[in-house]
UniProtKB/TrEMBL annotation:
UniProt protein name: Starch-binding protein
Entry similarity comment: Belongs to the SusD family.
Subcellular location: Cell outer membrane
The RagB/SusD domain, residue ranges: 344-514
Keywords: Cell outer membrane, Membrane, Signal
Organism expressing this protein natively: Sphingobacterium siyangense
InterPro entries: SusD-like_N, SusD_RagB_dom, TPR-like_helical_dom_sf
Domain SusD-like N-terminal stretches: 60-227
One Pfam short name: SusD-like_3
Length: 515
């Protein structure tokens, strides 16, 4: 259901961490001045689809986007007996359990459409308001379009054809119930909104722009959209806007605690980060993120959090995606197996990997309040999209090889240079080069919930060797077995629309295969 929203906000224009709607003013009554428009757009930073990736609101199940990775069978939730959406995803049995995952589907649907309705109102009313600065008006309008596109992108990937609305629902007389719109038309709106955002937003890094959406956030998102659609030339073009920006890769100082990966874990506002969710200790903490770094036995080691659960745990088979010389698989880079609390000298140890990338040491040992921002997009993704897009459209050039080489070289522990990797990669066929891009995406972004999107767009499943570290083959998705031995069906590509939503709106139809 497209929900009517009260949008009155008391938020300061400069405080993005205070974005909770406070009143029930109607949209036309609310959009009277630039301060109101600013506050309303601010609210979009913490609503809808971004929250599905960044919100660690539960100690027992990760963000909604994390559950997609469970479909691969390569990640598990230790509490899946309670959080059955994870169990049904891993076992590929959602079709027989549609009613049992209604709550999760309702949250995704409702929260995304709430954000879309706010964005639609912004697109309608911001052009009618007098601003002191035309640049501010232009930027706010572009931000509203960005968030409309971002939420529709999440919805169309999740459910396929969805209701498409570009006008705000403001009264009970407005049409709340719409039919599903074909996927291509949804993507058309997403592309249009993001193109306009790329054109109108400032060409600054996210940090330098006060943590507001920038030209490069929009370009990165549009590159991601084009990649998902299989529009490789356009994806490369957008990715190269980011590649040629002030954003850059974080470098290793050493291969230990001052590696690039540890900097990404501990430090906000790095140039590598294109778009992030902001957290701090007073207004909005990162909630349970740091507890996801351990399993339940960590309750004997820490006293700042009452619960630790391995809600997003890699299987041993998945960890074989890395060659033994890959820095990312070394202890205390992306993963870890042992930790001693420096405050009480108690030690946690496990044969199952915890996720070091999620660990906020100050929060776990001293404050109990996580402050590390969540990264949605990082510079290596721009490099890998550009590399794949170029190879798909014009073959393996030095440019494409150089982009992929940068990601590989940073993870190498033997001093192998970008130039050496570039030369080697240019000897590959286009098909094998693209597969190297896919492998590098598996290795670089396993903890940021991008794996399932890649599998759906390529229709290929990565079969990770159980015996040979670093060996990955790709087989057609439908008919392949996931890491838990379940066989993929065509109906596994989409989630079900909530039966509650279908009951409210009889114009909706259910996705194939679901009860």
């Amino acid at each position: 259901m497209l929900l009517i929203l009260g949008l009155g906000l008391t938020t300061s224009c400069n405080k993005f961490l205070e974005e909770d709607p406070k009143s029930n003013l109607s949209l036309d009554g609310y959009y009277q001045n630039s301060a109101q428009a600013q506050a309303t757009v601010n609210s979009l930073y913490r609503r809808g689809a971004p929250q599905r990736y960044s919100l660690a609101g539960s100690a027992y199940v990760g963000p909604a986007a994390s559950v997609n990775t469970m479909l691969t069978g390569y990640f598990t939730n230790s509490y899946e007996g309670q959080e059955r959406v994870c169990l049904f995803a891993r076992q590929l049995t959602r079709q027989q359990n549609t009613n049992l995952i209604t709550g999760q589907m309702n949250t995704i649907w409702d929260e995304s459409y709430k954000a879309i309705n706010i964005a639609n109102a912004g697109v309608k009313y911001i052009p009618t308001i007098s601003f002191v600065s035309q640049d501010q008006q232009k930027s706010l309008l572009a931000e509203a379009k960005f968030f409309r596109a971002y939420n529709y992108f999440y919805l169309v990937k999740t459910f396929g054809a969805i209701p498409l609305s570009t006008t705000p629902v403001e009264t009970l007389e407005d049409n709340l119930y719409l039919e599903r719109t074909e996927v291509a038309k949804v993507y058309q709106l997403i592309e249009t909104d993001l193109k306009e955002a790329v054109q109108d937003l400032p060409a600054k890094t996210f940090a330098d722009n006060g943590h507001r959406i920038t030209k490069y956030v929009a370009a990165m998102t549009l590159a991601n959209v084009y990649l998902q659609e299989g529009k490789y030339s356009e994806a490369a073009e957008m990715a190269k806007i980011v590649v040629n920006s002030a954003h850059k890769m974080t470098e290793n100082v050493d291969l230990k605690m001052s590696s690039a990966y540890n900097k990404l874990r501990t430090t906000d506002d790095l140039s590598e980060v294109i778009y992030a969710q902001e957290y701090d200790a007073t207004i909005s903490t990162s909630n349970w993120w740091t507890t996801y770094a351990f399993n339940s036995s960590a309750t004997t080691v820490f006293d700042k959090y009452s619960i630790f659960e391995r809600v997003f745990g890699p299987t041993k088979q998945f960890l074989n995606v890395y060659d033994t010389k890959d820095l990312r698989i070394q202890p205390n880079q992306f993963f870890h197996w042992k930790y001693t609390n420096p405050v009480n000298n108690k030690t946690w140890e496990s044969t199952d990997a915890g996720i070091w990338y999620y660990f906020d040491e100050q929060a776990a040992t001293v404050t109990g309040r996580g402050t590390k921002d969540w990264n949605f997009y990082r510079y290596p993704e721009a490099l890998l999209i550009a590399a794949e897009g170029i190879a798909k459209t014009s073959g393996v050039s030095a440019e494409a090889a150089g982009y992929l080489a940068q990601v590989k070289a940073r993870a190498n522990t033997e001093g192998k240079s970008v130039a050496t990797y570039t030369a080697e990669l240019q000897t590959l066929s286009a098909d094998n080069f693209v597969k190297e891009c896919w492998k590098e995406r598996l290795r670089e972004f396993p903890l940021e919930f991008k794996m399932w999107d890649d599998i759906v767009r390529t229709k290929m499943f990565p079969v990770i060797s159980t015996t040979e570290a670093g060996k990955v083959d790709f087989v057609p998705l439908i008919g392949a077995k996931n890491g838990s031995g379940a066989t993929f069906k065509e109906t596994d590509l989409l989630w079900p629309i909530s039966p509650d939503e279908i009951q409210r709106n009889n114009k909706l139809t259910q996705n194939a295969g679901y009860q």
